[in-house]
Design brief:
Chain B: Belongs to the GST superfamily. Phi family. Chain B: It comes from Aegilops tauschii subsp. strangulata. Chain B: Conjugation of reduced glutathione to a wide number of exogenous and endogenous hydrophobic electrophiles. Chain B: It catalyses: RX + glutathione = an S-substituted glutathione + a halide anion + H(+). The complex is a heterodimer. In chain A, strand 1, helix 1 and strand 2 form a beta-alpha-beta unit. In chain A, helix 4 runs parallel beside helix 7. Helix content of chain A is about 55%, strand content about 5%. Chain B is of the alpha+beta class. Chain B is built from 9 helices and 4 strands. A 4-stranded mixed β-sheet of chain B has the order 2-1-3-4, covered by helices on one side. In chain B, a hairpin with a 2-residue loop joins strand 3 and strand 4. Chains A and B meet through strand 4, helix 3, helix 4 and helix 5 of A and strand 4, helix 3, helix 4 and helix 5 of B.
């Protein structure tokens, strides 16, 4: 069977979401890298895959998909095994809880955490735009409120949807990894249940281990006091994708 | 079996999102009001259902859920029949197309259209805040580009995920319903296939019934 194809800048966070799911279910894939600077995502060829001109797009045989969460769900559903069932669609209640916390990531957690990543890493390091501290401060305040909810929730459950790891947890990886490379990573120390959940995920998941191992060395290192040994390679991956 | 409970008002677009699927399924449900003026959404009782203090929340027996799209999926799965299968989870390709266009509604369509609903209806009517025409104009620009893509898609397929009505189509109902009540509803006239698709959704008996409860 031909490997599935993922079209997009190799290390963008939405591409990472899809790649993690592919690794989790053990499906062979090929990343078709795309040059956003050259506006490759607006080419007729790419628009035929994703009519909104965004990345990633995805191909499995004749099926072409876009929207990283939709692609991820397809992968986890089609290639699910007895050991790796991250959607739990066979159980109404479990599937609903996976969906709830997947939505929370999309609508509450990600919108609070991503501006910090953009302002502290992407803008200064890649785009040469100075950090907008006001945006960072406002986002940190929003993130604290979200983490309070997570802290209470994770005091009752090992993972977000219950005592099993799921798509909901996996969805949090890419932007949380990036956040851990900012000066604000230390925020998680104030939320011990959240921190423990994060460390549990980092320690255990095959997708993280595999993607870390395939990284090129970073072109520049972010020097700080926030390295954790398991996270370092992934932070470098995230940073190197934004370096030229 | 006790009816399921939805906490919130039918006029709230995200509450309506859940009610669409309950009405389509002909399911028995109870709508429990949450009094925003009295800050009931921040009460311990409500926070126990939705820790972010938002609406809707939902209860089916001892299962408590929040996030309208997650609740809506639960409803669509629970009440699925051979005739009414809005998620198509039995067919990988069909389910994937449903998910794609559900994500498009959440991240692209609503991102362009809902600011117009907020600026033209919700802010002036509910918060006495004036319409910010700059936001409206920017959103209209984005929405036109989105509708171009929809027009093209609906020229090839009767509905968004394919030739079958799905979860993706019905998710468009609440915010589009309110958009039609703004001065900009006529925008859809420029996109005949989108307009026809919208009219076919509006003509559904469940949607007619729900629309009547959403009109002030």
């Amino acid at each position: 069977m031909a490997p599935v194809k993922v079209f997009g800048p190799g290390k963008s966070r939405n591409v990472a979401r899809v790649l993690m799911c592919l690794v989790e279910v053990g499906v062979e894939y090929e990343v078709v890298d795309m040059d956003l600077k050259a506006l490759e995502h607006k080419s007729p060829e790419h628009l035929a895959r994703n009519p909104f001109g965004q990345t990633p797009a995805f191909q499995d045989g004749n099926l072409i998909l876009f929207e990283s969460r939709a692609i991820s769900r397809y992968v986890l559903r089609k290639y699910k095994t007895n050991e790796v069932d991250l959607l739990r669609e066979g159980n109404l209640k479990e599937a609903a809880l996976v969906d709830v916390w997947t939505e929370v990531d999309a609508h509450a957690y990600n919108p609070a955490i991503s501006p910090v990543v953009y302002e502290c890493l992407i803008n200064p390091l890649v785009l040469g735009i100075p950090t907008n501290q006001k945006v960072v401060d406002e986002s940190i305040e929003k993130l604290k409120k979200v983490l309070e909810v997570y802290e209470a929730h994770l005091s009752k459950h090992k993972y977000l949807a219950g005592d099993f790891i799921s798509f909901a947890d996996i969805n949090h990886f890419p932007h949380t990894c990036s956040f851990m490379a900012t000066p604000h990573a230390v925020l998680f120390d104030s939320y011990p249940n959240v921190k423990a959940w994060w460390e549990r995920l980092m320690a255990a998941r095959p997708s993280i281990k595999k993607l870390s191992a395939s990284l090129a060395p970073p072109k520049a290192c972010f020097v700080g006091d926030i390295w954790h040994s398991g996270i370092t390679p992934l932070i470098c991956m995230v940073l190197s994708c934004w370096y030229r | 079996m006790a009816p399921v409970k939805v906490f919130g008002q039918a006029m709230s677009p995200n509450v309506a999102r859940v009610l669409v699927f309950l009405e389509e399924a002909g399911a028995d449900y109870e709508l429990v009001d949450v009094d925003f003026q009295a800050k009931e959404h921040k009460s311990p009782d409500h926070l126990a259902r939705n820790p972010f203090g938002q609406i809707p929340a939902f209860q089916d027996g001892d299962l408590v859920l929040f996030e309208s799209r997650a609740v809506a999926k639960y409803v669509a799965r629970k009440y699925k029949t051979d005739e009414a299968d809005l998620l198509r989870e039995g067919d990988h390709s069909e389910a994937a197309m449903v998910d794609v266009w559900t994500e498009v509604e959440a991240h692209t369509y609503s991102a362009a259209l809902s600011p117009i609903v907020y600026e033209c209806l919700i802010f002036p009517l509910m918060h006495g805040k004036p319409t910010d025409e700059k936001v409206v104009d920017e959103s209209l620009g984005k929405l036109r580009k989105v509708l171009e893509v929809y027009e093209e898609r609906l020229s090839k397929h009767r509905y968004l995920a394919g030739d079958f009505l799905s979860f993706a189509d019905l998710n468009h109902f609440p915010y589009t319903f309110y958009f039609m009540a703004t001065p900009h509803g006529a925008l859809f006239e420029s996109y005949p296939r989108v307009k026809a698709w919208w009219e076919s959704i509006m003509s559904r008996p469940a949607i007619q019934k729900l629309s009547a409860t959403m009109t002030p």
